[in-house]
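Exercise 3.2. Students should predict the tertiary structure of the chain below and write it as structure tokens, then compare their answer with the key that follows.

Predict this chain's 3D structure.
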Amino acid sequence: MADFKVHLYGAVATSSLAALSVYSFGWTGPRQTLVLFLVGVAGGLLPDIDCPKSNPIRGFFALLGVVLAFGMTFSFVGRVPLPGLALIWALVFVTVRYGIFVLFARYTVHRGIWHSWLAALAAGLASANLAYHAVGLTAWESWLAGLFMVLGYLTHLTLDEIASVDLQGRRIKRSLGSALKPFSLERPWTSLAMLLLVLLLGVSAPTLAPVLAVADHYGLDVAMLRARLLGGGA
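Answer key:
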């Protein structure tokens, strides 16, 4: 398995190249390009969410707790006095950072379902949904965010597989094939749960119309994709 620095540098390299590419095409401005780069780097670190002892994952749940705490607290502004708002913030943060984190750590296995193509797709769709419904970005910007998340995620899985081959020792480690896999055969129920999550996120995802329009602009044949994804609409 590749270490944290390798994953970080790998995600930085691929995300930088991709971000500069979309910027050169005129698809994004400077700020959007920077955000996409950061999303790609985050995706490059996300698969190790199933390794709860790592500091990056503890930091991830702490950040998630802060974001959700503010999101929940803002909905009560004007209806609850300041001490109550502070209490709501603290309860949400502690629940996410410690409660949900402990449950997640107990029921996840390293290199399980989170190290799979299916999880990469779920992370990409989740990013697109959050960008569109929570942040308020356009459908096109949201899909770019989802794409960068998937790019970073797959970079992580690929680096793990490369690290499974010891060229100097001329041997293949037992971990080969445990990262870059479609889904987890050892835990079919978690794979099924992840598949259901992908389907739900797909239903709530932003429209693919701008993506198909860009493909049409560059002369790609998207008739079949349009028929399948948009129900045959023109």
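Discussion points: Residues 1 and 160 are 5 Å apart (CA to CA). Residues 4-52+108-229 form one domain.
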